[in-house]
Amino acid sequence: MKNKKTFEKLFYNNKFVLAFSVFLAVIFWAAVKMNYSDNTTRIISDVRISLDTTFTKDNDFVAFVDSDKLTVDVEVSGKSYVINSKSFSKDNITVEASSGYIDSAGYKVITLSAKSSEADVSVISVNPSTVTVFYDRKTTETFNVEARLNNKLDTLVSDGYSVGQPVPSLSTVDVSGPASVVEKIKKVYFEATLDDNNLPLKETREVMAEVSFDLTNEKGSQFLVCDSLASEANTATITIPVSRVKTVPTTVKFINEPENFENNPPKVSINPSKIEISYNPLDDTDYESFNVGTIDFKELENGQNTFEFTPDEKSVVNIVDSSIKTFTVRVNLYSQSQTTVNATGSKTVLLNQADGYEYAVNLDTTGLDSVKIIGPKAQIDKITPDMLQIEINVSSLEAAISTPQSVRISNISIQSDYGKSCWVSGKYNAYVTVNKKQ
Q: For strand 267-271 and strand 290-296, is the pairing parallel, antiparallel, or unpaired?
């Protein structure tokens, strides 16, 4: 009885009555809302499309489609408390695209169908209601790569510099995609454009490039994939070679020249006498001339001496004009005279002898009886055989052979002051016999 009186007293408490009334109102509202309210609608965004490829696999066809276009907006209908964001999401909706049987390559427009996983929620519409898919067999082929720079080459550098042919980071690449598209590719481009703010170039530059394809028809080209660039080790870049350019005179180098010719070389004419060269801008060398070759004084005689030189392919300096294949060098020694000296009795020096062996030299049958001496007439007429020294390097001789072996004479020098202005011209041999010491 006491509990009953306590409960009755609560209804005389205004605060309790107010709270109890609100509670009943909420219960009543919820009951009405759940059982008697009208349906409402809601749009669910970014619902993923599921492609049904069951029938395409029979013919090895593949569905090519832009992944960004595989989402749609779905409008659903249901009680508000059922389709609110906390109770219902895109995971509760399935959108399917079924192509059916595919037996030819090309685009196909597929109508989408959507359904809800909740029985109390119905799908009203799908936007867009269709998806376009490119069907074809997938293939992979290898193609040549060409670097393509969209800037004009003559705008890349200032005076005193030149630009070579841009080079791609890969010479060939593997490309996969729809077979009907891949078979139409002629070549692959690594393409780049330099910002004007980075110009002019003063050294070789490597820039990032975009991949493009040489195709007469762009249909389906967005599905091409350059497999060779899938690795982080390989990136599409273009190297733009930049060189310094300069016009310089051509020169020739002399070796084995007499002392008086070291600072006063003979008169030389070279054709061409000037050339334009290119070299690495980071090279600290200031090139003032271009050496076309080396002339040994042993090859020079009195009169006109003519030599032909070809450019050195290993040189760090390049010749800009590719049509220059040879250099003609003429050395004028008409002011010099010539005589011959019998050197068979001259002093002989053997170089690089092997221990335990003795060497015997025969100079009589090798043309040393007429050694050519070139120089001023007043001096060459005074040179005698005892002034000559014959130097022979015997390191190449075989010790096991007891018969005389022919060997090229390394040098014949003039051991007097006449050697400052005169020299021995020509190549000579000697016979040397090698015997083991007893």
A: unpaired
| 344/374 Cα distance (integer angstroms) | 18
Task: Report CA torsion sign: 214, 215, 216, 218.
Answer: negative
Question: Is residue 391 within 8 Å of 349, Cβ to Cβ?
Answer: yes
pLDDT tens digit string along 178-188?
999 999 999 99
Q: Would you tell me how many other CB atoms lie within 10 Å of the CB of residue 420?
A: 15
Q: Is the pTM of this model over 0.90?
A: no
Nearest to 419 by CA among 299, 237, 256, 205: 256
Tokens describing residue 77 = 């209908």
Strands 113-116 and 267-271, sheet pairing:
unpaired
Q: Which two tokens stand for residue 418?
A: 């006449």
The three-point CA angle 15-18-20 to 5° equals 105
Distance CA 345, CA 334 (A): 30
User: Residue 58 and residue 368: Cα distance in Å, rounded?
Assistant: 91
Cα–Cα distance for residue pair 63/79, rounded to 1 Å: 38
| Res 429: pLDDT | 93
For 62-112, write each residue's pLDDT tens digit. Answer: 889 888 889 999 999 998 888 988 889 999 999 999 888 887 888 899 999
Nearest-angstrom CA–CA distance, 73 and 87: 18
Neighbour count for residue 95 (Cβ, 10 Å)? 20
